Amino acid sequence: xxxxxxxxxxxxxxxxxxxxxxxxxxxxxxxxxxxxxxxxxxxxxxxxxxxxxxxxxxxxxxxxxxxxxxxxxxxxxxxxxxxxxxxxxxxxxxxxxxxxxxxxxxxxxxxxxxxxxxxxxxxxxxxxxxxxxxxxxxxxxxxxxxxxxxxxxxxxxxxxxxxxxxxxxxxxxxx
Amino acid sequence: xxxxxxxxxxxxxxxxxxxxxxxxxxxxxxxxxxxxxxxxxxxxxxxxxxxxxxxxxxxxxxxxxxxxxxxxxxxxxxxxxxxxxxxxxxxxxxxxxxxxxxxxxxxxxxxxxxxxxxxxxxxxxxxxxxxxxxx
Lengths: 175, 135
Fold this sequence. Notes:
The complex is a heterodimer. Chain A is α/β, with parallel strands linked by helices. Chain A contains five helices and seven strands. Chain A has a single domain, classed as 3-Layer(aba) Sandwich (Glutaredoxin). Helices cover about 35% and strands about 20% of the residues of chain A. Chain A has a five-stranded mixed beta sheet. In chain A, strands 1-2 form a two-stranded antiparallel ribbon. The mean pLDDT of chain A is about 95. Chain B is mostly helical. Chain B is built from five helices and no strands.
């Protein structure tokens, strides 16, 4: 057997251990990104999540003006942390539509009563059907939708105070 | 005593972030009445990745979203949709990553070629040994 061939197992072992070490130092990013960014929002038609407000269908999102589509739930703790930031965005004139994931009208109503209601419309998605159509994997998630109803940005996880400039910039770019 | 109090506290503790306000979707834990359709749905569900507990299939996961995905798969199969069309619909949204079945994309060619290459390599080694023994 030639010398190079004898070294092969050692080279392979070093390569495999090196791969392990690299992934331990730099873990894989488990964030699931929607593949629909820069494509039209898929069709959905949801009933109102709380009585007295309209439901939400995908056609409502193409209003000629960029807006936010926020997926939230009353049982979702990070959504509570996000609520004041959404209120701030709303105060600055950003239009926000909501989808309440796996929720009841009573619980959504109580959540809005406690944390404020920045939403123009809120659709109810009791079996995550619209969430799956959007390519979203959890709550909270927020999409920037341009005036033509095209998805321009996906923000996974709560929007923090520090994310406001990036969100406003994405809305400006979608204009 | 403290351990017991802790265990009791654990019993009543609600897991954060995990539980939604609604019971599982209708077809999440129910089989389709037609056994052929159910078999097709089950085979597909075993090859779809759960979005919450990544690494489990939606057939194995008890996450709410996995239940909703099973509901979606069973509903569409019952409506006559082909399993591959449902898989394609999900891949369009979440990427190849959501399906456990490797695709025929160029990036996977080494994976498909690996068994053949290893077989040739092993065959060559065996052939070499036999020749050496004879001589």
